[in-house]
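Re: your question about Iron dicitrate transport regulator FecR

S., sorry for the slow reply, the queue was backed up all week. Below is exactly what I fed in.
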Amino acid sequence: MTDSVPDNAKAQAVADQAMHWFARLRGDSASSTERDAFAEWYAADSAHRAAYDDIARFWQDDDLAGALADFSISASALPARRRVRYRMPLLAVAASLALAAVVLRPGLSCLRADFCSAVGEVRNVELADGSRITLNSDTALSVDYRASERLVHLAYGEAYFEVSHNPEQPFVVDSKHCRTRVLGTRFIVRDGVGHDEVSVLGGSVEVGQGRQVAAVLKANDSIAVGADQDGGRRKLAPAAIGAWLKGSAVFDNASLAQVVAELSRYRRGRILIKDAATRELKVSGRFNIADTDQALEALRQTLPIRLYKLTPWLVVIG
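Result:
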């Protein structure tokens, strides 16, 4: 019988293991038992050795160390004999963050949700009344249909709703900072940092927050509601609303920090930007969210930046 596990899945699993060991062994609390277990793992397969050595080799790159300096203790500020000593703990932290994003988030996020999507996944769901929901990458929501209303709770992420018309049973989406009420329409609710964003593709919705008077949005209207937003309505170009539904992320004179934040929603791990000046570089264009490595390479070719790929889950832009 042939092995049914694809080669790329095997390589991914080995890379996960190598990253775990590299981060773990750089901590002060690694026990002798763990070190023995690592030695056994390392000796067991040439693929294990290659994956582990690749990570170690990445970390010894002087340009990479310089790019990471702004995120922790500056290597140039340390005595020469101590510089190498401080490199490893920094990677342990970075690798642990990446591992948390890769391993822990999917398991923890879906425990209380009726529907969820993994990082990089776009998922379509049809509800009992014929309404349709498309979950963007890394999204979780729950559905509670009652006699008086059809209630959806967006825990996090972003979702597109195409609602079947039923005036006797309004469709309501609760998110962290607002409540969106509709009868029949097409719209998107996004859980942002400190605010929720609602955008309408067709029909109309009411968007409220607490006791404030609800704002009525129509096609191509968008509003951000939350502690860091004033709730002002704005018009968006039709092509810009829900571009992710067609597999793209569209930017018009956005900062590199905004672009990276959006692309990060579609990949596991972390993308770090070295300094404030680099974060403010301006970007316009359309990028394929199904291939974020390709998107990063396009940024590298058009901006005065360098990419440092420490592991598949940690990229530094400098």
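Residues 1-6, 70-93, 95-108 have pLDDT under 50 and may be disordered. The chain has three domains: 7-109, 123-240, 243-317.

Happy to talk it through on Thursday.
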